[in-house]
Specification:
alpha/beta, about 290 residues, 15 helices, single chain, six-stranded parallel sheet
Length: about 290
């Protein structure tokens, strides 16, 4: 049985680790919040008191962490993966971080950058879209693990390529949420039946997963996080930096990045990114 060490059992990582248990892997997880570890144990996994314990016997280590410094600390730190995982263990980093950091890590350890998209529901259902950067042989070795948590799995290039594709994903998602938010406030201002409008829009060319999964909660001003504003703000910063490095102009991406930054600056970083609707309503004098 393949042994997996899983670091980061939050909104996304917890369900992913549970799905790996369901798929028959032996999973040992660690999270700074003990309650998250206890939840994995209740699902049939094992708990660890630290990173070193979680990865010591693992064939594969999966990380799902908030930002680049977190991944660097967990992988390269004195108590981290590089220091304590057995020789030949494969790191699958599902975090969303800077492509250059993924490339640097791949120069130190056997690693794939495999960021995911699909939100909390996709993590729970095991239907995440996974974009993978790294060596062909390592991708083949990780296939069974990735298939336990995702339904669309693509090898997109060398180390760092997965993070580059994820940056493009975050641009599209943020832009779509912003346009859905603007459309909903627009409909409300004209006293249109928004529930009916969402259904008909979702059935036409304007249809998208934001309308399907988030619009109803946005209308109700329910912003319990599936993906937090502060994390999407971070991701858009990654996209802007990567675009600047490549000499690519992303004017609409820059605007939505500023809107996300404004939402975070107003103290809403812990809300779901669908809270862009709050900002549109505020700018329209309706919030």
């Amino acid at each position: 049985m393949t042994k997996i060490g899983f670091i980061g059992l939050g909104i996304m990582g917890g369900p992913m680790a549970a799905n790996l248990v369901k798929a028959g892997f032996e999973v040992t997880g660690y999270n700074r919040s003990q309650s998250k570890v206890d939840k994995l144990v209740a699902a049939g996994g094992h708990g660890a008191a630290g990173v070193a314990e979680a990865v010591r016997d693992a064939d594969i280590v999966v990380t799902m962490l908030p930002d680049s410094p977190d991944v660097e600390a967990v992988v390269l730190g004195e108590a981290g993966v590089l220091a304590h995982a057995k020789e030949g263990a494969l790191l699958i980093d599902c975090s969303t971080i800077r492509p250059d950091v993924s490339r640097a890590i791949a120069g130190r350890v056997r690693a794939l950058d495999a960021p995911v998209s699909g939100g909390e529901q996709g993590a729970i259902e095991g239907t995440l879209s996974i974009m993978v950067g790294g060596a062909d042989a390592d991708f083949a070795a990780a296939r069974d693990v990735l298939e336990a948590v995702g339904s669309t799995i693509m090898h997109v290039g060398a180390a760092g390529a997965g993070q580059t594709v994820k940056a493009a994903n975050q641009l599209i998602v943020a832009g779509t949420i912003e346009l859905v938010a603007e459309s909903l406030v627009f409909l409300e201002a004209h006293d249109v039946d928004t529930d009916a409008a969402i259904k008909v829009l979702a059935g036409g060319l304007a249809g998208n997963r934001i309308l399907d999964r988030k619009a109803a909660a946005m209308v109700k001003r329910e912003f319990t996080p599936g993906f937090r504003v502060e994390l999407h703000h971070k991701d858009l910063g990654i996209a802007q930096a990567a675009a600047r490095e490549a000499g690519v102009v992303i004017p609409l991406g820059a605007v939505v990045a500023q809107l996300m930054a404004s939402l975070k600056a107003q103290g809403h970083g812990g809300l779901d990114h669908g809270a862009l609707l709050k900002l549109v309503a505020q700018l329209s004098g309706r919030e």
